[in-house]
Amino acid sequence: MAENILYRHIKSVLRELIQHMEIPLILTISLLTGRILGLFLTPFFRSQFFFLFPTHHIGGAEKVHIKIVHCLRKCNPVVFFTNRSRNPALKKEFMQNARTLDFGHFNYFDNLVYVDFWIGVLCTIINNNKTCVVFGCNNVLFYRLIPHLKPQICCIDLLHAFGGGIEDVSLLYVNRLNKRVVINKRTVNDLRDQYQLNNIAEKMNERIFLIENCVRIPEGARRDNDESILRVLYVGRGSEEKRVHLIGKISHRCYLSNLPVEFILVGDVKDSVDEQHRKYCNFLGEVENEEQISEIYSNSDILLLVSSREGFPLVIMEAMAHGIVTISTNVGGISEHICNGHNGFLIKNESEALIIKNVFEVLSKLASNKPLMDNVSHEAYEYAKTNFNCKRFCSEYKNLVWGDNYFNFENGLKK
């Protein structure tokens, strides 16, 4: 109720400003209004570590964000959610590791007046915490906030993938970013190329840090599938780059060839599959419960991704941790972990017709060769055990913050 009253009041005040003032003056007053509210909120958000994340709904990036916050929970972190979440699936878990403020209810960030208002709120809260760390990911507001922060405040960003546009937004703020985290070697090289093309000083490359993601590894290798049908799984969004419609076409191709496979799709993706192909797929919708998603992995054999671009999807890591055989287009950093024919299969990112053809051929091979299926499954699980360790993940994030003595865990932050 209090949030709704605050929302209506802010909206009313800003509407009045917009109607009666010139844009530069509106933005100035909007920023000042935000700073006034920030003064009232500051006592409730004293911290050494602030995170700016877009959402708390279910998703691979959001799961990674929770792991980072969990690793640094002893810093008494605060998490600001800046965008409207589709559901509150992961909010409780965030709240178990940090104090949170969700202003996704005020999701008007295509409007400069609202952007400047929240910049005023956040810069006041953060600047009043003297020396601290601000960590942002997938967040335009984070980059717009940076010029308003005091010089002694450490700014760190995380790029899950290169090519979505956020790397272009961040380019203006490279000199103010103390450290940048990426999750695969491909993005390291992409950033360096971007710097060179835009005449960014080569020394800025030293601020790029590679920290690969992690997942929980279930005890013991996955069970053997003694059934004659292979279960092909997709988990994710229905966004354009995921090309889920191709999975519908592949399922139709398999049906026409009587291939013994079943397609299971998790996520809000039904509308992404052509209507004539939906009857060949089993849609489970959004699955928020982690135990339920783990059970789905345990009962699946193959993970199928046909994306046009990726970083290194968490869903592949989760699948490999369950001994699932991944078939994926060779994009982003996927080939850094998937060795074709050894612990998964890579498909050239060619025309859609060729992707459908090549995926079908791999599925046919696996359906007729159980020893191959079992060997690749075993190699995937062993690779995950060795490389996707969360202890290593936490150690690297702690070292990112504490390793240069900018942050001392026992004594707090220091200049």
TrEMBL record:
<feature type="domain" description="Glycosyl transferase family 1">
    <location>
        <begin position="231"/>
        <end position="365"/>
    </location>
</feature>
<keyword id="KW-0812">Transmembrane</keyword>
<keyword id="KW-0472">Membrane</keyword>
<keyword id="KW-0808">Transferase</keyword>
<keyword id="KW-0328">Glycosyltransferase</keyword>
<dbReference type="InterPro" id="IPR001296">
    <property type="entry name" value="Glyco_trans_1"/>
</dbReference>
<protein>
    <submittedName>
        <fullName>Glycosyltransferase</fullName>
        <ecNumber>2.4.1.-</ecNumber>
    </submittedName>
</protein>
<dbReference type="Pfam" id="PF00534">
    <property type="entry name" value="Glycos_transf_1"/>
</dbReference>
<feature type="transmembrane region" description="Helical">
    <location>
        <begin position="21"/>
        <end position="45"/>
    </location>
</feature>
<dbReference type="GO" id="GO:0016757">
    <property type="term" value="F:glycosyltransferase activity"/>
</dbReference>
<keyword id="KW-1133">Transmembrane helix</keyword>
